[in-house]
Amino acid sequence: MAAYIARRLLQTVVILLGISFVTFVLLYLIPADPARQIAGRSATAQTVENIRHQLGLNLPFYEQYLRYVAGLVQGDFGRSYLQKTEVATLIASRLPASLLLMAGAITCELIFGLTMGVVAALRRGSRTDDTLMIASFVGVSAPQFVIGILLLYVFAVKLGWFPIGGYGTFAHLVLPSVTLGFLGAGWYSRMMRSSLIEVMRQDFIRTARATGAGRAKVLFRHAMPNAILPVIAMIGIDIGLFMSGIVVVESVFGWPGIGQLAWQAIQRVDIPIIMGVTLVSAFAIVLGNLLADLITPLIDPRIKLR
Amino acid sequence: MRNLLLAGVCAAALMGNPAVADDIKQGGEMTVTYKDDVSTLDPAIGYDWQNWSMIKSLFDGLMDYVPGTTELRPDLAESYEISDDGKVFTFKLRQGVKFHNGRELTAEDVKYSIERVVNPATQSPGAGFFSTIKGAEEASAGKGGELSGITVQDPHTIRFELTRPDATFLHVMALNFAHVVPKEEVEKHGADFGKNPVGSGAFKLAEWTLGQRLVFERFADYWNEGLPKLDRITFEVGQEPVVALLRLQNGEIDVPGDGIPPAKFVEVTNDANFKDLIIRGGQLHTGYVTMNVKMAPFDKVEVRKAVNMAINKDRILRIINGRAVAANQPLPPSMPGYAKDYKGYAYDPEGAKKLLEQAGLADGFSTELYVMNTDPQPRIAQAIQQDLKAIGITASIKSLAQANVIAAGGEENQAPMIWSGGMAWIADFPDPSNFYGPILGCGGAVPGGWNWSWYCNEELDKKAAEADAIVDPAKAAEREALWRDIYLKIMEDAPWAPIFNEERFTIRSERIGGDDKLFVDPVHIPVHYDQVYAKDVQ
User: Fold this and answer.
1) By C-alpha distance, which of B214, B517, B210 is closest to A80?
2) Rounded CA gap, A73 and A70, in Å?
3) What pLDDT does A198 receive?
4) Is A223 helix (H, G, I), strand (E, B) or coil?
5) What is the pLDDT of residue B459?
6) Is B125 in contact with A157 (Cβ distance < 8 A)?
7) What element of type H or E holds A209?
8) Could you say which of B238, B401, B428 has the minimum Cβ distance to residue A260?
9) Can you tell me the distance from the alpha carbon of B498 to that of B311, in angstroms, rounded to the nearest whole number?
């Protein structure tokens, strides 16, 4: 197990290096000239040249990349061109908000997804089942910014139950979490439904029933622990999904996380921030997948890590 | 918050119209929202419309403008003297001006602040504005250091010696780049001074939570008694403009800093709830089509005039929902030197065709129109394309990212025509010279420059230099007339087709008061933070 984790972490480093290289090449190739951007429109050619020199942008490509990686190894993500601050500081100050939002979204996914899935499975073929599955289908396919703005309009503006965007209290967390969790809830309910139907057909459930256990006991004691396993394994992979989702959801709700940071940086071509957030998200995705892989054998002893 | 709003409305109703400026009580607070994070509050670095006026509230310079106008007046300076040859400016500083850290501001600080901007290590986008000070060229080329042209005569007197007479120097002294910073704080925070600003302005920074909010608090020891009016301004960042409008409607915020989003413009301006909260004003902005005089057939003046006459500006104004007024000359109407009686080239497709005939192009020609690729710019370019088609010019549209269009304009033989929308010139200071040098003068017609029509008229360059040598404030009218003349001469050569001057629409909550001018101040965007007041404490 330890050897497996060590090997996977080593792979992670290689993957991150690869991602950093590809991102660096892409950002190097876009036609924006950071030196000119910093210098402003009133600058002389000499000022622009000066700044290019100070930032090391006049160096050949491979040298720029090596410098960047050398910084990375020491935890230095560089300085933002426009915000004039350490990228590491910017990301660190915003990471807690994103993690909180993800935790909220996972909670929503589990609550909505599992409930819908279980109810649909138990009432299989009924009208309730159909309705729930249509709802989950909508959840899976609706764009997040549409859901976000819709929820905001109904529950914050019209009903006034929640604040209109922002950050700080539990009430602020609800709508963005639901929006971000909506997609996952759709998937989870479908998985939970089929998984539970599958389990309920197994022999041991029939045995449990035969021993005279009640409906509730059969469901929660015997069926659920088995049916829920594939869903749990999904959570790790979800972290990757969230990384793309937060860019949209955080912008709609004014949530001060790294998704919003990335979106602003992209619009203003602030290359060091784009690089930094890309690497941090890539790291989260790789880590999420690793977690999923580690959980799987705990769930199903037939799978062995090698 | 909703109660607060009602209370404000009632108070205002009970008291009638609160008051002439002098009776305004200090106190209360206001909330402003922005979509983007504030990048920096370092006056040497900040150069976007969002931080520009925030910096003005935290820092002061020797000169400033009368609120809501383009009229210069001394600020940290008590008085100034200009030598007869226009090359020496001597400023007397006010006594007892304090920085937020409690130390008194002296002439040494003024000297330090300007030398810091000129020093290449600071990477200030404003360094170029000080190039006329003696020693600036050497300092910006080398390692920085002191400028021989700046002398501190005593703790409250500072003298600037220029290499040539410069009538715009007082405006330059009012730019943020000339605002005064305390050396010890700059050295303490180093590159992070922009996140820990300490100045001598009406407000001081009380809190900055990255990505969430900034709080400005009234500086109790501010030299200008009675200012600022508000005790506190909270800037909430990361708020989409559409969401900000909803919050304004709910009474949660006072000023959506990004204004009214274009997609919502018609709806909001027609909404009875909002109508009285919107203030409209001019901007020091002109949107124009450049024609590259170095590329045939735009080397012929008839062709350039024909393009001027072919474009239906009223239709373009409709495309942008009337957020602008039609332009007929380079200067915007609120800029000193604007020629009110000048009629420009009227819309006349028939006349335009005749001009093309005279140029030997009766059958028209094909060309390219460069444009930035975000809405509404491509739609405006299409309208221009159709207008040109009507007189026989086939223009294919090249819709590119902003950086690419700017790069194409900076090359001599690349872009025959450019629609400037989204990249157009907005003046740094309200003086006619600011619309000439970089965008119409020979100095800007260089690779990487902003003179995209590559128009270079040596004679006008000479005239411009003459105008800027008239430093005596008593002769301001004469200078203005000279500049007016220069821009009318430019229109005879027609390197641009001026299209429109954008207007500003500021929306604010019912509880924030102040003269309308303060909400569309030419320099302070979106509002003059020091001057607006809270109606609920009156």
Assistant:
1) B210
2) 5
3) 85
4) helix
5) 95
6) no
7) helix A203-210
8) B238
9) 10
Residue type, B449: G
- Chain A residue whose CA is closest to B123: A51
CB A162: neighbour CB atoms within 10 A? 23
Cα(B197)–Cα(B206) distance, rounded to whole angstroms? 10
pLDDT category of residue B7 using cuts at 50, 70 and 90: very low
Alpha carbons B120 and B124: distance in angstroms, whole number = 7
Residue with tokens 């921030």: A273
Contact B403 A31 (CB under 8 A): yes
For residues B533 and B514, give the distance between their C-alpha atoms in angstroms, rounded to a whole number.
6
Q: Smallest Cα–Cα separation from B339: which of B154, B239, B486, B471?
A: B486
Residues forming beta bridges with residue B372, ordered by sequence position? B400
Cα–Cα distance, B398 to B378 (Å, whole number)? 9
Q: Is B395 helix (H, G, I), strand (E, B) or coil?
A: strand
Phi, psi of B73 (to 5 degrees): -155, 155
B37 contacts in A (CB within 8 Å)? 83, 261, 264
CA-to-CA distance for B167 and B176, rounded, in angstroms?
18
Q: Do A36 and B428 touch (CB under 8 A)?
A: no
B247-289 pLDDT, tens digit each: 898 889 999 998 888 888 888 888 888 888 999 988 889 999 9
Q: Which of residues 114-133 of B touch A (CB under 8 A)?
A: 120-121, 123, 125-129
Q: Closest chain A residue to B211 measured between Cα atoms?
A: A256
Nearest to B173 by CA among B45, B64, B66: B64
Q: Furthest-apart CA pair in chain A: how many Å?
A: 88
Cross-chain CB nearest to B141 (options A41, A46, A269): A46
Q: Give the Cα separation of B347 and A137 in Å (integer).
A: 56
Token output for B178? 């000339």
Min CA distance, B355 vs chain A (Å)?
35
Q: What tokens does A268 get?
A: 């203003």
Distance set, CA A96 to CA A168, A258, A266, B4 (Å): 12, 9, 21, 33
**Other residues' Cβ atoms within 10 Å of the Cβ of residue B84:** 9
DSSP 8-class letter at B103: P
pLDDT of amino acid B222? 95
The answer to whether residues B316 and B380 touch, using CB atoms and an 8 Å cutoff, is yes
Which of A30, A36, A44 to mutate against chain B (most B CBs within 10 Å)?
Answer: A44
Q: Report residue B380 as tokens.
A: 């405006």
Q: With beta carbons under 8 A apart, name residues in chain B contacting A160.
A: 250
- B414 inside 8 A of chain A by CB: no
User: Burial code of B133-145, b = ≥16 C-beta within 10 A, e = fewer?
Assistant: bbbbbebbeeebe
Half-sphere exposure of A104 (CA within 13 A, CB side): 21
Residue of A nearest to B194 (CA): A84
A81 to chain B: closest CA residue: B39
Q: Which amino acid is at B531?
A: Q
What's the rounded Cα separation, in Å, for the pair B160 and B169? Answer: 10
Taking CA atoms, what residue in A is nearest to B48? A40
CA distances from B194 to A10, A237, B185, B443 (A): 39, 40, 11, 32
Closest in A31, A43, A157 to B125, CB measured: A43
- Reference B52, options B535, B529, B523; nearest CA is B523
Q: Do B125 and A40 touch (CB under 8 A)?
A: yes
Residues in chain A: 306
The pTM (predicted TM-score) of the whole model is: 0.85
Distance, CA of B366 to CA of B389 (rounded, Å)? 10
Contact with chain A for residue B195, Cβ under 8 A: yes
Whether residue A84 and residue B428 make contact (CB cut-off 8 A), yes or no, is no
The per-residue pLDDT for range B27-57, each reduced to its tens digit, is: 999 999 998 889 899 999 998 888 999 999 9
d(CA A117, CA A132): 8
